[in-house]
Amino acid sequence: MPIERIIRPSLFHHPSKVSFSFYGHTALFILCLTLSVSLTLTGQDKPAQLSPPSIAAFQKWKNHRLPDSIRINALTDYADEYMRKKPDEVAYILTNAAQNFKGIRNTNLKHHLYFKLAYLNIIRGNIESATQYADSMSLMCQADPACRAGALNIHGMIFRVQGNHQKALEFYFRSAAIYDSVNHIDELLNVYSNIGEANLNMGDYETSLKYLLLALEKNKK
Hints:
Largest sheet: none
Low-confidence stretches: 1-43
Strand content: under 5%
Number of strands: 0
Distance between the termini: 34 Å
Shape: globular
Mean pLDDT: 76
Radius of gyration: 22 Å
Number of domains: 2
């Protein structure tokens, strides 16, 4: 929610001067902020105009004084909320962030951003880019089981949108086995749902129902 700042003019200052000072500096700050983002972002084709949420997310990412987890989460939370509302802006912000991973050593944080980028490109129908990000995830996740499971899951999604449901299931099953072994229940439920959807698309309603019920059972626990 927006934060409103209430300014009470001093009795010793003329109200018009206070108003000019406050609004003048505010307008100047917004202008400088917008120019800063415009000059900093490169790579992905820039939308005609960036919305305030996009600017805010990227500014938090750029703030190297913040912990890496907060910087990455600012981007992924922003992506979750605006991925379908403003796909071009989200693609632009996340792509440029991914190109500037200087100082980020936590592979798990990087993998979250690559997962979002792969999923976003699936939504936009850019399968080639989605595959590139999924492959990058696979390379960086060899030593992290949960990260590797995420890469397998996103690869499965790519095969699903290409209509290769059998291949998608191969990746989903491998992903589910890893998530189950490391007890990542939320992610496991998501993969079970994907398995159910793939079987539904193949006309195997019995197996589809089995995995949807299994997801419900796991969710209750």
